[in-house]
Specification:
This protein has 126 residues and is of the alpha+beta class. It has a single domain, classed as OB fold (Dihydrolipoamide Acetyltransferase, E2P). 17% of the residues lie in helices and 36% in strands. The protein contains 4 helices and 9 strands, in the order E-E-E-H-E-E-E-E-E-H-H-E-H. The strands form 2 sheets. The chain has a 6-stranded antiparallel sheet. A 3-stranded antiparallel sheet has the order 4-6-7.
Length: 126
């Protein structure tokens, strides 16, 4: 399944989707498949100011714990609370219901340095 075309992708497998001044952040299907069964998700709280490159949370699975990084600076304005009760949402739907957090940004330009869906898929093809 190809990655959605409406996002930009990082080397560390996070996706970023810009909508106005808010960037929604999640992890790719490739990352979810590598982690296998996600068992726990912890994100920094709403109101936290972050800088590009900061860890904004972590995802634990039966296989590993991985930090989640943002490519943009801003303020976390929303966290996907549904993942606290059911972290397996990430396994089922990493691109829609499994989003991790939303960050209000002043400048989305850093996203231009990330990979397009085509570049990301080609890099991670099996």
């Amino acid at each position: 399944m190809p990655s959605p075309a409406d996002r930009r992708y990082s080397e560390s497998h996070e996706w970023h989707k810009i909508e106005g001044s808010v960037v929604t952040l999640g992890i790719s299907r490739f990352a979810v498949d590598e982690l296998t069964d996600v068992t726990y998700v912890e994100m920094r709280p709403v109101g936290t100011r972050v800088k590009a490159g900061d860890a904004v949370g972590e995802v634990e699975s039966v296989k590993a714990t991985s930090e989640i990084f943002t490519a943009v600076s801003g303020e976390i304005v929303e966290v996907n609370r549904a993942l606290s009760d059911d972290p397996a949402i990430l396994n089922r739907d990493p691109y829609e219901a499994g989003w991790l957090c939303r960050i209000r940004v002043n400048d989305a330009a850093p996203l231009n340095g990330l990979m397009s869906h085509t570049e990301y898929d080609e890099k991670n093809a099996s």
